[in-house]
Queue: 2 jobs
Job 1
Amino acid sequence: MPPSFPFSAIVGQAEMKRALTLTAIDPTIGGVLVFGDRGTGKSTAVRSLAALLPPIEIVRGSAYNAAPVNGEDRETVPTPVIDLPLGATEDRVVGALDLERALTRGEKAFEPRLLARAHRGFLYIDEVNLLEDHLVDLLIDVAASGENVVEREGLSIRHAARFVLVGSGNPEEGELRPQLLDRFGLSVEVASSTDIAERVAVIKRRDAFDRDPEAFVAEWAAADAAHRAAILGARTLLRAIETPDTTLAVTAELCIALGSDGLRGELTLMRAARALAALEGAMVVTPAHLRVIAPSALRHRLRRDPLDEAGSTARVDRALAEVIPA
Amino acid sequence: MRDSAEPVAEAGAPAWEDAVLAAWLLAVDPVGLGGATLRARAGPARDAWMDLWRDLTPERPMLRLPPGTPDDRLLGGLDLAGTLAAGRPVRSPGLLAEASGRTLVLTMAERCPSGLAARIAAAQDAGAAFALIALDEGAAPDEAAPSSLTDRLAFAPRLDGLPLAALAPGAAPCPAEVVAAQARLRSVRAPGTLAEAFVGLGLALGIGSLRAPLLALNAARAAAALFGDDEVGEAAAAAAVRLVLAPRATRLPPEPPPADDDPPDDPPDSPPPDTSPDTADASDGDAPTPDEAEGPDDGGGRIPDDVLVEAARAAIPSDLLARLLAAGALRTAGGASAAAGDDGAGRKGGRPVGSMRGALRDGARLDLIETLRAAAAWQPLRRRLMAEAGAQATPGRVLVRPDDFRLKRFRRRAERVVIFVVDASGSAALARLAEAKGAVELMLAQAYVARQQVALVSFRGAAAEVLLPPTRSLVMTKRRLASLPGGGGTPLAAGLAAAMDLARLAKSRGTTPYLAVLTDGKANIALDGAPGRPQAEADARRIAQALRVAGVRSILIDTGNRPAQSARDLATAMGGAYLPLPRADARMLSAAMRSALDGPG
């Protein structure tokens, strides 16, 4: 496994980095969708996230990343960041009967696959809009229930599969189904910068990384460690953060003004704002936090009218200006 | 008009010399440069290049990858025969894994579906060490290899139209020289300012992707290594610009600029300050940031910018304009996949695209081979279990369980392409054009919900224009529609003809085209571009009839101020529905659209 590009070394793309950081602080925010131009480092950012995530404790040897509840023998493993490749078969995603055991020992045993490995971690789909429809259906179902149910050869398997769904794609390849869109907590639009200095910095860092990955990663280790510490600190702080009723009222007002579907948007917005407050070390969630995070939390939930000339981001901005005057 | 401009032949010898140089550079650094897109028909030029590549890289045997390659062959899977013979699962690694350290040749790259492109790109990103040669035989400017792929390939030599005499072999291909250059490559330094120069030039040439300057940097180093230098000099940098940046240009570099174009003398090392003042971003900027790595790149010399700009200007393809027109035209999403069958009218369900697990229910079609494959591995176990249960398995009979059922997956029946043909002429006066746009948007919303592909053709002045080949992207469609200008004559026949071409193409790709024509029916420009109402109307009628004969379903929405007989006649000639816009409201349009889309077809 070659080392991945350090998260801290990603130039610009503040919104994307923020969204990924916030879901790392509070996984219940529920995933990130990164949409944008080619060559803007979408998948780089997601892959580099793995190095930032604090390890998790699992029952020793568990193929399902089961959390120890009692005194089981336990071990510490990195938070899984699992790639769901295009073209993966259904068996490879949900799991299948273990063919090897069936053939060699004549036993029927379930072999857990991607969804089991992603439990308590991240599931990443690059080019998510090219994913086969039947796999999309399956993911929507599992992401909603947090549980993977498989029936094979008379075996019925049911295991927990709660993961943060991270998708990236290029809008020119096509749209996402609204149902899948809704599964992502935050959505981010990335564009390649037109600022020369920023572009030069991107090129130089990438070039340095390509030429000597180990040295480059070592150089940025301190920055990544600081970021990881910030995530951990924010996690501990999270429970103590206060969300005043006034902020809740503003949240509701914002969602109503935008006509966003269901309560999911409101919930995500609140959670993301709280995580942001924790990251900043603020003890109280204020409308200022909402303002920062509202575009990411809401813009992909406005697709009711896919043809509004203004575009989703502009609509969120408009509503923000009305509800939270500067 | 509707004939697609063939790429213009370039001056012979220099183009071939550059193509040769590209092959050498790629041989020196195949992983850093990704590969090359060969835009050429099969022919002596392409063969000569491929021969050269073969001679340069004897250690990289070629592996052919046709665009119809199924996933299990591409990504690997269970090797059924091997599994049964060995009595344990035997997996085949798949082409992409096998290609590591070799040359992967993607044939008919212009037909490569975006899904396949994404899989190849993912393999490259994951560090598969193959050089990719994409053979692009596209004829029309907008028929080309997927940009998700070409973006990652450093070179795109254009070999079409090279005279035979130009194909001089140049220096004899010498693998030893390549190996020597490879050994030198790691220690080649690039001047610190080179990255800035490439980025700046990339922007000046209108290249959005950041991969381009990065690939140019690698190409410059490979060139220096090949030239036997330990630092990138003018020649190497210019070669990189010529071979990597110029072919990607979407606009000409500015004329020789005034003297103040020098970038600041001190390299802009410090990362740019966060320029978004509106957001207090705690996750960014607080963390300690190592100084920008200049490291081994910190060479002293700098290469004058005008050398690079000149190199770019000289190498920009002569048919830039034609390609620019096509550049906006995104590669058809989903595009062509597998071998497109014959026009195959009336086939139910469209083309099969693999299989999936599922229950045999209404209308599902069993994929027998895949079902047997799924069942085969379990035979020993099932026999034993049956024996244990006291049942007798008939010898020689395959035990199939419902779990084994694999169903054929078809390109969804709903996969249709709605081709909007919008009259943007002066007679469809501007106010009406706005209404027509509104109508198209309404129908777009329908198409969006039904996950249809849409395409956009407009006609005005003397000709028709395909604004958007079939796509699922609403974003693109909206953008194109919004910027559609109006005015001029009404070349209705040309518009219908362009739509007919698209419809044919859509059919050949296994999708069902559906035409939505928005016009007032008042044709006054004939198919050949000459003004004159009688000929124009006759031409329009002729093509309308051809559309009916071709079996393309259609609806004509009369955008005139009041319903016109000419429009109604045209709808009749097309064999399509007729709906006068003045009386249509949003609901009616939606309903018309829905009935059209849900109807048999």
Job 2
Amino acid sequence: MSYEGWILLTGALVGITCGIVGCFLILRKMAMLADAISHTVLLGIVGAFLVSHSMAGVPMFIGAIIVGLLTAFFVQLLDSLRVQSDAAIGVVFTSLFALGVILLSLFASRVHLDVDHALMGEIAFVPWDTLEIFGKEMGPKAVWMLGFVLLADLAVILLFYKELKITSFDPQMAAALGIPVLLIHYLLMGMLSITTVASFDSVGAILVVAMLIVPGAAAYLLTDRLSVMLVLSAAIGALSAIIGYYLAVWFNVSISGMMAAAAGGIFAAVFIFSPKHGLIAKWAANRKISRYS
Amino acid sequence: MNLFQHLSDANTQWVLAGTLLLGMASGVLGSFAYLKKQSLIGDAMAHAALPGICIAFLLYGQKSLFWFFAGAAFSGLLAAYFIQAIVKNSRIKEDASIALVLSVFFGIGIVLLTYINQNGSGNQSGLNNYIFGQAASLVGNDVKIIAIVAVILLAVTALFFKEFKLLTFDPQFAEGIGLPVRFFNGLLMVLIVSAVMIGLQAVGVILMAAMLITPALSARYWTERMDRMVVIAGGIGALSGVVGTIFSTASEGLPTGPLIILAATLFFLFSMVFAPRRGLLVNIVKQMKMRRQTARENIMLSMFDLMEEEMRKPAARHATGFGEEQIRGLRPVSKRLFARVMKQLIKENLVSSDGNRYALTEQGKEQAYQIALKNRLMEVYKMYEMKFSHEEVEKQEDIFALPEPLLQELTRYLQQLGRMPVRLSKTGPGENRRNRNNIIGQRGADSRYEL
């Protein structure tokens, strides 16, 4: 496959993976927690490097999952100590992120990951970092990593679809039915962490939030069914990655930034033109009502 | 250079003054944001400032703090407007709306930043500092602007403190007495945005939110009064700013923003653990005391119940004491707690023990009787809660505060149900109890003869 093809594939995989996970975050009102985890994953990656002295996939995943779950746990802990939940998120993610940045600057000479790269990602380098098995080139590492994470996410969602759905819409009822709500919560946090770290290399810590939240939010305005929302969100994620890539090449600017901007553009269009929940549809419905009365 | 040389350096002093004032202003304004439950708005506005700064740079052509402020404030307020508009006009909730606007604005900012880096004309190196903040890159002029803005922010807050306070706690009332709520809400928002803007260069867009949240949250642990909270938050913010800056200048190359935030986080952790009334430590001690008190009452009650049971048997077969298993079997108390409470009870001469059997002393019987009476009156009260719902009794201790006729009625129910506690002590009720629950005492005495 060509250089461009690999980048497009990587971007589309990021969009799809983040898109399906993001749906649940929106439904559970945990968007800011995603923001927090996407920041703190940096600490997990730096920590994994300091422990294992390699930038290999597995330690990074483990580090990210540990820190991601820790973030969720700390937020929950502060919450139970009667700290407002948004302030709790704010305190936890900023301090863990600050710690990550300081460790990164202290050991910057030894980590080939620089701060800008961690923040913005560099999808343009992805095709050159290839995986070789028995001397045969198997395509970029990032694609394999994202593909694996996508499969893992899909497996979790298919296996626990019912549980995820009911805990997202009606946690009290789920608890009454005997579904382990907290376990599902941490399962989702784990999924979020591995998704973030897999996308991290391509789009960076902050823009992964855009890929997580924006497609889901747009899909939420287009449908009332969870299954449709998941598919739509994945499609919008992939579409914004592809549009973003071409625009970025056109203007010669950051690809990841443009992907976020493209997602924002798609959301704006949906926000205005959505057939049921859009501005125009609402405005028309209001006019209809006022004409009858 | 060592630390002392650093501190005597004029530029470092300027920078220190800047971060001190910045910390103070953001701590003060963060208190309002925290109490209005808008902590993360600051996060969104800080991220959203990036495209504004870049556009200002593109339009003006070089680094100018004033135009950066203007651009950042414009895009920050625009982001705040978008967040509100999305929440108002769609079913997307506030948290998703904040995350959405924040990340898209930041994405646009990154796009513009790379555009400037590739096509810009020369002096754009300072722009990258806005992401993590580099206080050392502040020069005299920047610090002057930061200081002036911070002082203005503090002055305006002091001037309208009363109005902001009212607005924060009771906006409906504020509107009712004719305060221009919309104006003051807007003013407060502008002040918060300004605090974010002056912090960007020192702390950076990503961590600026913490400057608003962390000092305010820490201050909340120390006081229940708004005016003190604002002062404490300002102090913690200022201190974090100074500590972070000193560490950053002393160690070459460490970014200032994260160090300031870590300093603030340490203050927060300290407050959370050691604060006098809301702190963790105090609460743990309080909880332990409470657990002990409950265990004590439970043990007394269990012993009373066991004794009462014995009283129903023919006098000759009365047991004089009870084993630990027997007492703990009635109401669960952990073994360790039982041992500790028993030791205390024996010391107070309420219980006598021969090593493995425990018996209530005369004094203990009297106290156990009072506890049992309270406990059972509460039971009956709960049983007929609908009937007594106009009287609010939250705790067992308050039950004797009920009016006399109600107490009599409750006592009557107790007797009907056969739950009237039996007086265990040999002394009559009239001799040692001449207070407002006299009547219950007498009835208690009566019921002894009924058995």
